[in-house]
Input
Amino acid sequence: MAEKILKNKEAQEKLKSIVDKIDVGNICTYDANSEFPHVVPMSRQEVDEDGNIWYICSAESETYKNLEQNKKISLIYGDPKDYTFISIHGEASLSRDQERIDKYWNKIMELWFHKGKEDPNIRLIKVDPEEAHYWDSGSNKLATLFGMLKQVITGERKDIGEEGELNL
Output
């Protein structure tokens, strides 16, 4: 894989394209009483124009409680069918911005928040990415595997995608 270092707007655009494509990622928060991170899958609401990633959660969740104590957060997104992956590390901030909750609200949210979008437990997590690393084959799994097999048979070295750091 070709290795790249993307910066600023180009890095934000790459992050947004991968996160928007995959949607559900694993959020890792850190509890002071555990050696291991607390990990849950969550669907992102938006990657905004500044590269921040937004989620809705409950104030009663372990994720929220961990972030109240420690703002560090890691996100891991993976799409094995397209061989696209990204790990993101940053800092989270918590809020209850009703205007943004209204913007993100949909019928599926009612499964978690039975009182509707005015539920007092609804909280927003805004992730400000500080660093990220991605792997992107640029094609689907079958094409990537074929390219790898061709390299094994012919001995010809050819890039079958790219990976790199995102300096955000």
